[in-house]
Specification:
Blueprint: H1 2-28, H2 42-56, H3 61-84, H4 94-120
Helix pairs in contact: 1-4, 2-3, 3-4
Length: 128
């Protein structure tokens, strides 16, 4: 039980820290293009997927793993859209977009993996 709680807390911390960093970067300096570039609004769609998914699964570990994996996929989709449409040129080059978005994809996926580990240690529910 202690391992599950610790792993769940770590997953929450990673997800929250990643989300706050994503908000700060997209609003503060702009990940795509310059500060104020409307393309950065796509990142709020990424966060919406995580929030709606988390509420939908009522914060249960296995459901949170799926919600955070979906968030990582949405983050990757934003990167693909930005690269294909050449959003942010000339301020945000392809390498910068790939590295920054790759960091967020890895962080959200890492949180999903931690939630999955927390679900592994969760005792089976009875059918009473």
């Amino acid at each position: 039980m202690a391992k599950q709680a610790t792993t769940y807390r770590a997953a929450v911390c990673v997800a929250l820290a990643t989300s706050l960093l994503l908000i700060w970067l997209s609003l503060g300096v702009g990940i795509i293009g310059r500060d104020g570039d409307p393309a950065n609004l796509m990142y709020f769609g990424v966060l919406s997927i995580g929030i709606i998914g988390s509420l939908g699964v009522r914060f249960r570990p296995l459901g949170m793993a799926r919600a955070l994996f979906a968030t990582a996929l949405a983050q990757a989709l934003v990167a693909v859209i930005a690269l294909i449409a050449k959003l942010g040129d000339p301020w945000s080059g392809p390498l910068e977009l790939t590295l920054l978005n790759g960091f967020f994809v890895a962080s959200f996926a890492g949180s999903a993996w931690l939630f999955r580990r927390a679900a592994y240690w969760q005792p089976a529910r009875s059918l009473d």
